[in-house]
Amino acid sequence: MHSLKKIIFGVQIQKMKIVTYNLNGIRAAMNRGWINWLQENNFDIICVQELKAETSQVDMSVFENLGYHAHWHNAEKKGYSGVAIFSKQKPDHVEYGCGNNDFDKEGRVIRCDYGDISVYSIYFPSGTTGDIRQGVKYQFLDFIFNYLKNITTSRSKLIICGDYNICHKPIDIHDPVSNKNSSGFLPDERAWLEKFFTDGFSDAFRHFNTDPHQYTWWSYRANARVNNKGWRIDYIAVTENLLSQLRSAAILPDASHSDHCPMVLEMDI
Question: Could you read off the pLDDT of 17-73 as tens digits, one per residue?
Fold first, then answer.
């Protein structure tokens, strides 16, 4: 990785910085200064969700000029969904999609392998538009859990970045009482996330920070962001065999290129 290096007991240790960010439209984010922000922060790996654009609609040279290899998985529907991974190091292998046609046509999953570590950018479905899409969300949750568990049999070190569209616990949402029946905080969704975080995967942010009022998404309505009335629905999960290599994890609420904000993880490799 293109990162800080040190030698410990004859072994070269590199510090890797990974960020996840739902951009709610990459072109809109670029118009709000996202590229300058990337240049200032010099991340090793950038996982993004909800691109809402194809590569032909974006000036890809700006990423090349910053030293990034870009890998992009579009949705079939124009202006919808889509995920990508940008990295300073060229991946050894790129996996576009998850092998489920219903989800792959929506551009929800991409994986890049770097040595023995695999990095995912995943955009989980939202169920906020009604029962049909909530049903799709539950189908995705069932599928992706089994899919990722199966991947660990051949790729044991996973970093799973993305917009999960679920708040895990009451401290992850500004008003857990009034939102108890809201998609994104439903009991079955939260139970799924609890299972995920107790069956081989860990919430990197909560590994370091247990404070409440730490959010990654705010509605555009009613000055929600200014008043910090938000939801923590974006995560970086890691397999438990990587926990000893984690050095820090933080939410970056001052980055305002989207209705989401990014989360960054630093680790040794």
Answer: 999 999 999 999 999 999 999 999 999 999 999 999 999 999 999 999 999 999 999
DSSP annotation of 242: G
* Closest C-alpha to 73, from 89, 42, 97: 97
Q: What is the largest CA-CA distance in the chain?
A: 57
Q: CA–CA separation, 146 vs 138, rounded Å?
A: 13
Looking at the structure of the chain, the number of domains it has is 1
Check: CB of residue 203 under 8 Å from CB of residue 237.
yes
| DSSP 8-state code for residue 211 | -
CA nearest neighbour of 218 among 8, 18, 24, 12: 24
pTM for the predicted model, two decimal places: 0.95
Spatial separation of the C-alpha atoms in residues 211 and 119, rounded to whole Å: 27
Catalytic residue annotation: 163
CATH number for the domain including 248?
3.60.10.10
